[in-house]
Write a structure and sequence with these properties.
The chain is 66% helix and 0% strand. The chain is mostly helical. The protein has one domain (13-110). The longest helix is centred in the middle third of the chain and has 18 residues, at 58-75. It is globular, with a radius of gyration of 13 Å.
Length: 113
């Protein structure tokens, strides 16, 4: 097996919204990360990620959590009063509790109230 890192490419809002409606979990999860890394409109991105935390697919929830951590690191701001309770709810989700804790750690490290 030959694993190779691929840098996520920038994505437009329109392209992202179309991709997020995909039934393919990999497309949706990758799109969330692309938004986190490249979208300058962090409130728009944050809203997308918060909505994605409620997805039935664990891969999408995990990607949304990771993306919130990236958003915190890159923009150093979030609507903490919205984001922290949403992430905290997922600490009891066995499929993504560890990723939720990582996101909380990133927020604590990079976002100042």
């Amino acid at each position: 097996m030959n694993l190779q890192f691929e840098q996520p490419r920038p994505i437009s809002k329109n392209e992202a919204l179309l991709a997020l409606s995909s039934d393919c979990v990999d497309v949706v999860a990758t799109t969330l990360v692309r938004i986190a890394l490249w979208e300058p409109d962090w409130p728009w991105a944050e809203d997308i990620f918060l909505k994605s935390l409620g997805d039935k697919r664990k891969e999408v929830r995990s990607a949304a959590l990771t993306s919130l951590g990236h958003l915190a690191r890159l923009h150093r701001t979030l609507h903490v009063s919205l984001v922290l309770p949403a992430i905290t709810e997922l600490l009891i989700d066995p499929d993504c509790a560890g990723v939720a804790q990582d996101a909380l750690n990133d927020i604590r490290m990079f976002v100042r109230d």
